[in-house]
Amino acid sequence: MSQESKQLQETARKAVDIKNVGNFVLNNALIILMVIAAIYIAIINPNFLTTGSIINIISQTAAYLPAALGIGGCIVLTGTDLSAGRIVGLTACISASLLQSTLNMANKMWPEIGALPVFVVIPLVMLVGAAIGAFNGFFVAKFKLHPFIVTLGTQLIVYTMLLIYVTLGNNNGMAIANLDKSYTDFVKGPLFSVGDIAVPRYVLYAVILTAIMWFIWNKTTFGKNMFALGSNEEAAKVSGVNVFATTVLVFALAGAMYGFTGFIEGARVASNTANTGFNYELDAIAACVIGGVSFVGGIGKISGIVIGVLMLRLIFIGLNMIPGMNQNFFYLIKGAIILFACALDMRKYLTKK
Amino acid sequence: MEGTALLEMRGISKEFPGVKALDNVSLTVRPGTVHALMGENGAGKSTLMKCLFGIYSKDSGTIVLDGKEVDFKSSKEALENGVAMVHQELNQALTRSVQDNLWLGRYPTVGGIMVSEGAMRKKTREIFNDLAVEVDPSAIMRTLPVSKRQMVEIAKAVSYHSKVIVFDEPTSSLTETEVEHLFRIINMLRDQGCGIIYISHKMEEILRISDEVTIMRDGTWVATRPAKDLTMEEIIKLMVGRELTNRFPPKNNEPGEVILDVEHLSGKYTRLKDASFQLRKGEVLGIAGLDGSGRTEVLENLFGAMTKESGTIRLHGREIHNRSPRESIKNGFALLTEERRATGIFGIRDIQENTVISNLKNYLVGGICLSNKKMAEDTAWSIQAMHIKTPSQSTQIRSLSGGNQQKVIIGRWLLTKPEVLLLDEPTRGIDVGAKYEIYQLILNLAEEGKGVIMVSSEMPELLGVCDRILVMSGGRVAGEVDAKNTSQEEILTLAAKYV
Prior knowledge:
The structure holds two protein chains of two kinds. In chain A, strand 1 (190-194) and strand 2 form a beta hairpin. In chain A, helix 3 packs across helix 13 (302-320), helix 4 (84-98) crosses helix 11 and helix 8 packs across helix 9. The radius of gyration of chain A is 23 Å and the shape is globular. Chain A has helices at 3-27, 29-44, 51-76, 84-98, 118-143, 147-165, 181-188, 202-219, 221-231, 233-238, 243-269, 280-290, 302-320, 329-349; strands spanning 190-194, 197-200. Chain A is mainly alpha-helical. Chain A starts with a helix and ends with a helix. Chain A folds into two domains: 74-199 and 228-277, no CATH class; 279-353, no CATH class. A two-stranded antiparallel sheet of chain A has the order 1-2. Chain B has 17 helices and 24 strands. Chain B folds into two domains: 7-240, P-loop containing nucleotide triphosphate hydrolases (Rossmann fold); 258-495, Rossmann fold (3-Layer(aba) Sandwich). In chain B, a hairpin with a 2-residue loop joins strand 11 and strand 12 (220-226).
């Protein structure tokens, strides 16, 4: 081979390399930008990377993660779920009301029942969430309604249920607080400590749920059916997949995840009102989109959702630490991140003509 | 061809709101035979198969499979009972892997819940080896070319080890080598005693592969005969219900001076390279070539629907750029796209909207308000001039037959008063009878002095309608022939030049 052609080949290879690097940067632009932002914040405010701050970021990620894992499945089906936040609110109030301390009966919502064991309450609220999710899924699968419409409707219904619930018993619409120690310990008690800062137990629960969801998405027939359905419903149907059951189950599973989030939030927030959980779905959807769960359908990874939630928390906590940062700009930045993420995502699926 | 029937469909009827899709149709398939099902579009072939496969529920009639009466309520049930189908439209989960698609709906599991990837991979390899299909089982579906995806679909149908396998137009996206491959697979299945139902529009294929042929027309059974007793002419006669003496209308157009001059046209993201040609006033220029040869790309690059890399376009000697469809329409171009359903019609909108959509600025009163009267007038003109059969202007276009839909779109473009019409497969998916009318329309346009460039994969059509034919091969112009003095052999030789 002549010197010249070798050189030519070399140039061609470099061109390809540069193109690949360019693609890599674009495909991961959001994460790269967020890492840059995190580094910037760490430089201007050294407190950002202290043990306490990092544990705070991890804890918040763990708190928001289950709802995002649930909603991720709905997005894989090219849908969404606007009822997530209200389900979190309802299940948080139910959890809190059933786990109030018996030491102060006067303020107890249900004085006639003591504080139930947490292992009764967890399945109960997950069932409540799953039932509402199944209701969503039923309307989506049976009447072929878009999940946006269905869940727009159910979130109002669930909100009403929530408003009524907080007026029941002795409560009269007050915040549900005064929680039993067994509950707060189970959720917020120390898992282990780094220095003198404790990592709360719910981080462990989020890890367990993530593992379970990873297994469901990647290793079970249900998971594979879900992706196939999101990718091409007709193909799934003619291949003998039970489209109805799969859809209902995806929404029910999401509902169970919101139920668990509600259980955690109940203790985390400690003082629960009808506003608990409000707008949680928006953060969850944003996290999924940032993590590459595509609205095109049939695409998404659990690891992506974890990264998405983490990135979003990192930025929010970070923004709070920028001196002189106007709170009002948080929403602008959130909005910009969502638009940017979606635009980058679509770029992957467009074919150039 | 002895032996009892493997599958017997008797007196099947199916009615959709306002349409009798199937009227007392019967079909008998013997084991170890290939039974071809033929008929024009809308004759009811696919509907009949969907009734068999549990996608539609039949209104009346009986289906007997292997001596037992069956009535499948879902595809799942059909598959479990030994009936598999290769669907006309590729029904695949494109974001998933080949093996995930292959075993969709019946994943091998451990303990009923967990999918066994290992077993799946092993079974996929076995089937691909048996059928000599060369596809990576873990490749993501969307990264494969359409023909490979079709082969996966075929392998999938075979993998059910079904007694009856339905092939609904399996070769529409296959190359010639792959068609041969498919025929070897079908012969193998036949030797194993399967009953094959084969739906196709390609007569040569039907006569080659099938043992028996059933012909349907307008939702009714017309005839069932041994394939060896049939000729192409007879099949057409049975399908159309009358003899088609002339497949093409007489040609009276006279090409005049050159109006369009294209030099060194290349696509940026396509394989089109260095295409040069001219078009005369009143001429029909055909473009021939195999699938993927760059036929469509010539039109779409010329029209600005695809990005050009280089090349010059001159209209009446003046250079134009056609950077986007909008610009091209202003320059007097019109493009009838290949995929009518995907990129031609607005299915749920009515005839009027579909007619006026490319020409809206001509109906503006005072610059803002669209005049219903003017739109109705132009639509009425189009319906009359194109001989469109429709109950009214406010009928949804998707309820018309393919031929009538195509006429609506041709009418749409004529309203923009184009000088150059680019037609991509203008008769695809259109009944034999309606094709004649489309040919007539094309020739009338040429007679009126328009320049027409027409891409087609049907050689007789190009020979019957065009004046000159440009043959594409491997993204380049392989040659140009005079339609009167050429043969299918010459065109095919040119088409294979750069493959």
